Amino acid sequence: MAKTAIAYKEKMKEISVLSFICSCLYPETPKNILGDFDFEDMAIKPINKRASGQAFEVILKPSSPVSDAAHCVTTPPKRDISLEDIQKKLEAAEERRRSQEAQVLRALAEKRDHERDVLLKAMEENSNFSRMAEEKLQVKMEHIEENRQAYLAAIMERMQERERHAQEVRRNKELREEVTA
After folding, report:
1. Gap between the Cα atoms of 51 and 42, Å rounded
2. pTM
3. What is each CA distance from 21 to 18, 29, 39, 63, 97, in whole angstroms?
4. Each residue of 110-141: pLDDT tens digit?
5. Res. 29 pLDDT band, cuts 50 70 90
6. How far apart are CA 32 and CA 16, in angstroms?
7. CA–CA dist 3, 11 (Å, integer)
8. Concatenated DSSP letters of 125-137
9. What is the pLDDT of residue 71?
């Protein structure tokens, strides 16, 4: 626990170094947020260890009871906004709105195009399927018709064969009757 407290104090010192660097880069920034206090005036009180990690309570003691006003953080002064700045911001917002609206319209158009393409493809596949089914049915019907014609021709051939045989038998019978008579 003591190691963690020391590490926390070191981190606080790093923050003050970071704020010093920032104050060099941005001299207009307000006074250091941490104020002017010595790190010995900082007390770190560990709180019970939790499942999520360590918890600390950092207590900053003022240097003297009179200097409470020194620790107040002042807000940065507001920049005067001119009418031109407001107009520029409004124009930029309008341009962003138009851009976003155009982007939404493009996305909707792409979605509509995709839906149309999918619908056309489905219709084409359906017509191809219908055409193929119709062709198959036509071939099947032609095959059935050919088989029927062949069957009828075979029956007619047998009937003619029987008729010829019957005529031959009749003629033979007549010849026998003439010979016996």
Report:
1. 26
2. 0.37
3. 5, 12, 19, 24, 39
4. 999 999 999 999 999 999 999 999 999 999 99
5. very low
6. 8
7. 12
8. HHHHHHHHHHHHH
9. 53
